[in-house]
Amino acid sequence: MMKKQLLTLMTTLALSSGVHANCDLSGYEAQGELSLLSNSYAVLKYFSDKMAECESESLKINNKLVSGSAVQEQARIILSSRRGNSPYDLIQVSAESFHEFQAKEQIQPITDLIEKFWDEYELSDIPNEIWDLATIDGEIFAVPLQMNMQQFFYREDILNKYDLSVPKTYADVIANAEVLQQQGIKYPISQAMGKGWDLATEFTNIYLSLGGEYFDLEGKPLFNSDKGVKAAETLKSLLSYMSPNALSMSSDLAMVNFQQDKAVMGNIWATRAAEMDDAEVSKVVGKVQYTGAPTATSKVSIPSTSIFWDGYVMPKRVGENRELIFKVLMEMLKKESMAGASHLAFLTRKSASDVEGEQYRYLNAMRDMVESGAKAFPNQPYYSLAHNEIGSKLPDALRGKKDIKLVLNDAARAYYKEAKAQGFLE
Question: Mostly located where (predicted)?
């Protein structure tokens, strides 16, 4: 929780009147407590802080920020155990968890509130095709905040030093890594391949690049195909060039490896790019460059990434403060707030994403990947079940303890059993 701080006379006066200088809740009885459950990386912390600006003497803001995939796991537990009730008024969701929660009727439609505040907050600044991502059967269930993709981070100075080209395929990545190891750089690759969500996401990226489909029309698994085996083999080939803890490496740790001059290349979330140039925590300011994710092979053109989005939802039951909660959300995401975070992520407002400058150089890679046919993250409500099984079972195969094909078959059987048990499939 962001504690109330009286930094200036203006802030003091704002709090004493019940309205923060940067958060206009006039016309509302802003009393009690509101809370948000969110991931903790830079852009989401920024908007959590914006929500905290709505705190007053009568309204407490009590946000909880957690790292990595833990936020979705906590949300899943909370919403499942409480049948839509939640101690949080707003929850940050990913493309994956959004479809799961909506299918289970654990979040509520907010179309009426969006229509009510459409003009006041200039919500047409968010393109229709982005609103469509959060729309199911004509109802909007989330306010999309940002688009995110994994793209290829690389140390331009080091590649130039050894006369290496920027990789276009994973075979190129391995070839570069081999040269760098021979030059004394023991672990040149750093990317999030930790057991669970991160590893399953990397598998998904490569599998989509190969043209793989996760399910048939009836929801039966297809990811244990030859393309699935090839995706896993590609991941396994990276391990010789990564630190011994590669299969426990999170996005946070992969980012820190770059910041601390311990990595040369890796597929990293675009939202981590701004932190490469933060002089307070990074030793490599201005040295990291960005390009599209490598393709799985030279025979395909789809980059090994997936179009991901994050947004905010309201649990199915949040008490009597529904409109106040949404008003606070709008204050968080208004034009001037998003403009202040345009260097941190590819935000959904056109006014915040159409930017130029050195600090936004990573955005070009995102645009290029979309133009190259990058696939959207799978949106079937039961996808997360397959994702979980792959993430938990695949490490043994990558360590060489089990056969890759057998492990994928086990994951497919476990997914199908659980999907039927949860009522997704007949």
Answer: periplasm
Q: Measured between alpha carbons, how far is 34 from 90 in angstroms, rounded to an integer?
A: 8
How confident is the prediction for the chain on average, in pLDDT? 91
Q: Give the largest Cα separation in the chain, rounded.
A: 67
**What is d(CA 160, CA 63) in angstroms, rounded to the nearest whole number?**
44
Closest CA to 24 of 56, 58, 68: 56
Side by side, the strands of the sheet bearing 150-155 are 265-269, 150-155, 288-291
For the CA atoms of 396, 397, 403, 408, what is the dihedral angle to 10 degrees?
100
d(CA 52, CA 3): 8
Q: Which two tokens stand for residue 423?
A: 């009522």
**CA 202 – CA 235 distance, rounded (Å):** 8
pLDDT of residue 426: 87
For residue 83, what pLDDT is reported?
Answer: 62
> How confident is the model over 176-196, as pLDDT tens digits?
999 999 999 999 999 999 999
Give the start-end residues of each E strand in 292-403.
306-313, 346-347, 375-376
